[in-house]
Write a structure and sequence with these properties.
alpha/beta, FAD/NAD(P)-binding domain, 2 domains, eight-stranded mixed β-sheet, five-stranded parallel β-sheet, 18% strand, binds NADP nicotinamide-adenine-dinucleotide phosphate
Length: 492
């Protein structure tokens, strides 16, 4: 079908080639839809696992669960996968399932507009125009690095970079490094760079809850078993899934379930940090699971190495070659590393997607992202968001949630085909009722009431990130694209 200025109108355009976008592309192909294009701003597929290449980068969900259900990987060599292996897995999936030819890498979405008369999306990308009947956005939740505007940063003459944009040309050997942040990224980087740097000044604003890391190598024999008897790996996956699912209860309903983990974390701290004064500085003053918990056996030992100092007074300013802490102490540094996380509720892509009446997602959301089932947004016809608002988990694999959304998106396409609809748009009342109930459930969770500040909250103070329940509940809700929830319009 020709579009404006002769641009071919694809059935589907997908933005992003991480787990969500690639999963969507693979499933489309398996579903018999071949007319689609994937736009990826990175130089390769992989999404967050392509961009995050910092030393020590590892997933905190077990490998056998952190994979596509339709593509088990007997080659995982660790119980918890390292970044390089996840990236290799995603590249392999892109090749193995034949979606590579559909992927345009180094192509950034600049603008997307719903053209009502034509019932299609028109996209402007850094590599040219694209048109499609359906737009699937899978930009990733943790894809936009957040760097605080520290006073004096512009006059700092050393190197400065974010963990998600690691500067591999900066050899940190023998350097004086300041690192800001003690979230999952900071905790993974510090033990890797501590042995090579001359000094490491670690700025910790809020101590994380840290529990022992159960990671271990997967024996070659076990990998052979997985290869020969795939059912064994399925069994392992099912077991991990079943063991993790009850954790959702503790976070969302009954705090008694979290007390055991708190004890685990306190014992871990006591075992690894003998100095009571340091221990006090490393003890969180908020409930466990309020922020994402951290798995590490190396964090506390690294902090106690003689070339590391832990600073809790914050950053007053940067000078040409130094950093000044909140107490006014100045330290000379060569490199500043931001392990300061992301702003998931402020994704720039939201400013670039325009629905009915030309309004952007960012404009409609006004700082608080909201969707129906985390996937469709009223006023944005034929639009599906993979890893959209309130889909994130703290207890299990996000890949499971993404696959639920992908199945829902496929059913939306089937519904269009079956009913002859050219357009679907979620009913405002349906979206409102869904979110009212969701926010009601979130109100009692540890994320909302545990006494911490986290990236789960948007600038209006609303939790627009977390899914407040079991993953199987979400799967049940997204099992079927219910046409009654939508206004379907015939093809024009
Ligand atoms: P994060 O959890 O948001 O941590 C950011 C850190 O930077 C926090 O310690 C924060 O302190 C600090 N910070 C932010 N602004 C600051 C400022 N102006 N001054 C001083 N400190 C500041 O980010 P992240 O570590 O990149 O992790 C984000 C998420 O990515 C994780 O929660 C996880 O979901 C995912 N992740 C997972 C893994 C894994 O699977 N193992 C690894 C990396 C990331 P406050 O706590 O006081 O705000």
């Amino acid at each position: 079908m020709p579009g404006v200025e002769g641009t071919h109108v694809h059935e589907v355009a997908i933005v992003g080639a991480g787990f969500g976008g690639l999963g969507m592309a693979i499933r489309l192909k398996q579903h018999g839809v071949d007319d689609y294009v994937v736009i990826e701003r990175g130089e390769d597929v992989g999404g967050t696992w392509w961009s995050n290449s910092y030393p020590g980068c590892q997933c905190d969900i077990p490998s056998n669960l952190y994979s596509f259900s339709f593509a088990p990987n007997p080659d995982w060599d660790r119980a918890y996968p390292m970044r390089d292996q996840i990236l290799a897995y995603l590249r392999d999936c892109a090749d193995r399932f034949g979606v590579r030819p559909h992927v345009r890498t180094s192509s950034e979405l600049l603008d997307a507009r719903w053209i009502a008369d034509e019932q299609r999306w028109e996209l402007e990308t850094s590599t040219g125009p694209v048109a499609a009947r359906v737009l699937v956005a899978s930009p990733g939740l943790l894809s936009e690095p957040f760097t605080p505007a520290l006073p004096g940063l512009d006059r700092f003459e050393g190197r400065a970079f974010h963990t998600a944009e690691w500067d591999h040309s900066d050899d940190l050997t023998g350097k004086r490094v300041a690192l800001l942040g003690s979230g999952a990224s900071g905790v993974q980087v510090v033990p890797e760079i501590q042995p090579i740097v001359e000094r490491l000044h670690l700025f910790q604003r809020t101590p994380p809850w840290v529990i022992p890391h159960p990671d271990h190598a997967v024996a070659t024999g076990m990998r052979e078993v997985y290869r020969r008897v795939p059912g064994m790996q399925k069994l392992s996956r099912a077991g991990i899934y079943a063991l993790r699912e009850p954790m959702a209860l503790g976070m969302t309903r009954d705090r008694r379930w979290t007390k055991l983990q708190e004890l685990n974390a306190r014992l871990h701290l006591r075992r690894q940090v003998p100095d009571p004064e340091l221990r006090a500085r490393l003890t969180p003053d908020y409930e466990i699971f309020c922020k994402r918990i951290i798995l590490s056996n190396k964090w506390y030992p690294a902090l106690q190495e003689p070339n590391v100092d832990l600073i809790s007074s914050g950053v007053r300013e940067l000078r040409e070659h130094s950093i000044v802490d909140g107490d006014g102490v100045e330290r000379e540094i060569d490199t500043l590393v931001f392990a300061t996380g992301f702003k998931p509720a402020e994704l720039p892509i939201a400013e670039r997607i325009h629905g009915r009446e030309g309004r952007s997602l960012a404009d409609v959301w006004a700082g608080s992202p909201e969707a129906y089932l985390g996937t469709t947004v009223t006023g944005f016809p034929n639009f599906l968001f993979i890893y959209g608002p309130n889909v994130n988990l703290a207890h299990s694999s996000i890949v499971y949630m993404l696959e639920s959304q992908i199945a829902y998106a496929l059913d939306a396409l089937d519904t269009m085909r079956r009913t002859g609809a050219g357009e679907f748009d979620v009913r405002p009342a349906v979206q409102d009722a869904y979110n009212e109930e969701l926010q009601g459930r979130l109100a009692q969770t540890v994320w909302n009431t545990g006494g911490c500040a986290s990236w789960y909250f948007d600038r209006n103070g609303r939790n627009s990130i977390q899914w407040p329940g079991f993953t199987f509940e979400y799967r049940r809700l997204t099992k079927r694209f219910d046409a009654a929830d939508y206004r379907l319009s015939r093809s024009s």
